[in-house]
Amino acid sequence: MNLASYTARRAALGLVQVLAVVTLVFLLVQALPGDAAVALAGDNPDPARIAQIRAAMGLDRPVLERFVEWLAGLPRLDFGVSLVSGRPVSEFLFGAIGPTAVLATLTLVLLLPISVMAGVLAALREGSLLDRALTSVSVALHSIPEFALAVVLIAVFGVQLAWLPPTAVGADLLSQPAVLVLPLVVLLARPICSISRLVRAGMVDALASDYVRHARRLGLGETRIRFAHALPNALAPAVQQVARTTDWLLGGVIVVEAVFVIPGLGTVLVDAVAGRDLPVVQGLAVVFAVSTVAVNLVADLVAFRLAPRTEVVA
Q1: Do 154 and 22 have their domain in common?
Q2: Alpha-carbon torsion 34, 36, 40, 41, what sign?
Q3: Which residue has the higher pLDDT, 266 or 304?
Q4: Which of 251, 241, 231 is CA-nearest to residue 300?
Q5: So what's the pLDDT on residue 204?
């Protein structure tokens, strides 16, 4: 199977997955207990006020009709209107996506080279003190939950030593990059551990493979063998882990933004859930679903390219 046909098949599967997730999100939100109109009407709601809110929210219409209308607006980025503020949901998303995108992008940009470098160094010095040290640190960091690590870092470096800002309250992320240091450390800690271990294992297997031994018999340079032949094959399983890490980032960013008070999508989601702002919750769920499918699609294509399949001809 060539790359073009594989891409088309995976893209079609991704579209089906997005439609399934979007449908499930809508149904789950509709199945939530309680009445949003009653919650928004206040402690002593007037029946006329409740009826007015239900009409404004469209809750007096059939569920299928509301679903079709909502689904038709998604390609235009029309996620509906916030029940709390009356603003379009897209304004919330576009206003908060900047900090989240900065955090996620910087995490991935730093994650890949650091993980690959650590994994390759450990593999090239298999069994050495460096290899054992990296393994010990990886296991220790991977066992610490994100929120616990964030609290410890804030207490030590933000409060006791006062080297870095403990939160992002009143700070501009672009003009004050020091605010991002502690959040990035929290987001990078666990993924670096898992990906570097995968790279190490893949590199060790690749260096012990038959094709590497054959390349050495041909007289190829050791540097070329390691980085042009062994490393691409060692990266194939790590690419899939990067995709899973990106999915994990969607949840990790929510925790980090809540702890460090960063005004991103995670903060918007927490506020929307607390305020029972269902259209905002639905819109964020769609964004997360599309991002997850897109990231996994790209990861599958990269893994396919790094480890191409061969057709067996009888």
Answers
A1: no
A2: negative
A3: 266
A4: 241
A5: 81
Among 67, 74, 87, smallest CA distance to 24 is for 67
pLDDT tens digit string along 79-136?
Answer: 888 877 778 888 888 888 888 888 888 888 888 888 888 888 888 887 788 878 888 8
**How many C-beta neighbours within 10 Å does residue 295 have?**
19
Domains held by the chain: number = 2
Inter-residue contact 200 to 262 (CB < 8 Å): no
Asked if 294 and 156 sit in the same domain, the reply is yes
Q: Please, what's the b/e burial string for 128-163 (b: 16 or more CB within 10 A of its CB; e: otherwise)? A: eeebeebeeebeebeeeebeebbeebbeebbeeeee
Q: What is the CA radius of gyration of the chain?
A: 24
In whole angstroms, what is the distance from residue 186 CA to residue 149 CA?
Answer: 6
Task: Calculate mean pLDDT across residues 252-264.
Answer: 80
Q: What is the pLDDT of residues 149-180, one digit of tens each?
A: 888 888 888 888 888 888 877 666 666 778 88
> Going along the chain, which residue ranges are E strands?
none
The whole domain housing 212 covers: 96-306
> Do the domain assignments include residue 254?
yes
171 vs 97, 103, 121, 162, CA distance in Å? 16, 15, 38, 16
Count other C-beta atoms under 10 Å from residue 50's C-beta. Answer: 17
Q: How far apart are CA 304 and CA 263, in angstroms?
A: 37
Residue 312 predicted with pLDDT over 60? no
CB 2 within 8 A of CB 300: no
pTM: 0.71
Contact 116, 109 (CB under 8 A): no
Q: For residue 264, give Cα distances in angstroms to 94, 105, 157, 271.
A: 10, 13, 23, 11
Average pLDDT over residues 273-277: 75
Which residues lie across from 88 on neighbouring strands? Answer: 81
The 3-state DSSP class for residue 130 equals: helix
The neighbouring-strand residues paired with 9 are none
